[in-house]
Amino acid sequence: MGYIHMPQPPYSLDISPCDYHYYLSLKDFLVGRDTRTQAVLDNYVEQLINTRPKQFWKDGIRKLAERWQQGPCS
User: Fold this and answer.
1) Residue 11 maps to a domain
2) Where is the signal peptide (predicted)?
3) What is the SS3 string spanning 4-62?
């Protein structure tokens, strides 16, 4: 499987990188957890990455591709 690098589109409120699949999952994962130190936060991020199944990452890539096809003005 090959990938094509696509440049980041001009800033748009409706396609913010912060809304992407992983960041939404990370935000939900961190709710109610103590993240005051960088070491603790790093540990939680590593836990999240290591506990997600392969399909989670595939879905995120598919959703990103769909957003790119919609374009920033859709």
Assistant:
1) no
2) none
3) CCCCCCCCCHHHCHHHCHHHHHHHHHHCCCCCCCHHHHHHHHHHHHHHCCHHHHHHHHH
